[in-house]
Every structure is written in structure tokens, then in C-alpha cells.
């Protein structure tokens, strides 16, 4: 299962899956294995300082010098990450958490319990909405401590929302 697709600062295309991460450099047709860390399809976030955070059993910080550090709570399986201003939103099997960008484990703050299962994807739009796909409880919008849900009863085709993607207009 693919957890994340993004461009690196040097223009390479990187795809993270349940089996690890592969990368293709600009102008190349060859995919290279970058990482075989099993992070269960979690997402990656590339930071301006060159660090790469990967969601999995805890959060891994891959520094530009190649050093990998487990940071955050290793007892909570993270499913997705997104940067929101000066903090990080962390989707887990237990709901949504917020932490400072230094990812101090002691400062993880629970925001909401997203549903009976896990947060499967996250997106943060320019209006300040946090959009969450859940495994069994539909689409959730969180903003300023307010929660709104859409399920099959409200017209969704399924309550299993695997990915939330914003278009160019932030829809």
C-alpha cells in the first residue's frame, strides 16, 4: 500500500509503501530502494532543514547525514503526519494528536478521537481545516475544536476513506 508520494528538494520522486521507500532521480528511469523500514504505509514529511519524518511505530527522523532516530511515542502506531504552522499533526489508531515541530513526546496533545478505528490520512487546507480520512467512520473535518463528519448516510460512497487530497483550489 502506498502511504506517500512526494518530490524531494533535489527533484527526485519518492514513494513510501508498506514495504519501504523507493526513489527515482530526475532524468532517470531507474527506481532505487531508499529505505526498507516497515512503517505500515504511513506518510513521510520533508522538512525545510532536510530532515524526513516517517510515520510508523512511532515517528522516525531521518537526518540529512543519514542518521535515523526514533522520536515521539514508540507505543502509538502513527498512520499519517502533516505540518500545520509551527506544529505537527499526528494521525494514529487512537485519534489525532498535535505536537511541536521538535516532536517532544511529552508534549503530544490529543485533539480528537476520530472514530472507532484509525485516522488513515490527513490534509490541512489554507482555511485552517484539518481533513481526516478514517478506516470505518468516513471523512472528518476538524477546526477550532469543532468536528463535522460525513459518512455513507450523508452521501459518501464508503465510510473507508484511504486518502484525503486537496486540489489546487484547496477543495
Notes on the structure:
With 171 residues, the protein is mainly β. It contains no helices and 16 strands. The chain has a 4-stranded antiparallel sheet, with no helix packed on it. Strands 5-6-7-8 form a 4-stranded antiparallel sheet, with no helix packed on it. It has a 4-stranded antiparallel sheet with strand order 9-10-11-12, with no helix packed on it. Strand 13 and strand 14 form a beta hairpin. It is globular, with a radius of gyration of 16 Å. The chain starts with a strand and ends in a 21-residue tail after the last strand. The mean pLDDT is 79.
Layout of helices and strands, plus pairs?
Layout: E1 2-7, E2 13-17, E3 20-24, E4 32-35, E5 44-46, E6 52-56, E7 58-62, E8 68-71, E9 78-84, E10 87-92, E11 95-100, E12 109-112, E13 119-124, E14 130-134, E15 139-143, E16 146-150
Antiparallel strand pairs: 1-2, 2-3, 3-4, 5-6, 6-7, 7-8, 9-10, 10-11, 11-12, 13-14, 14-15, 15-16
Q: How many beta strands in the DSSP annotation?
A: 16
Any idea what the shape is?
Answer: globular
Main β-sheet, in a few words? 4 strands, antiparallel
What fraction strand? over 45%
Instruction: Supply Rg.
Output: 16 Å
How far is the first residue's CA from the last residue's CA?
24 Å
Mean pLDDT: 79
Number of helices: 0
Query: Which range best describes the helical content: under 10%, 10-25%, 25-40%, 40-55%, 55-70% or over 70%?
Result: under 10%
What string, H for helix and E for strand, traces the elements in order?
EEEEEEEEEEEEEEEE
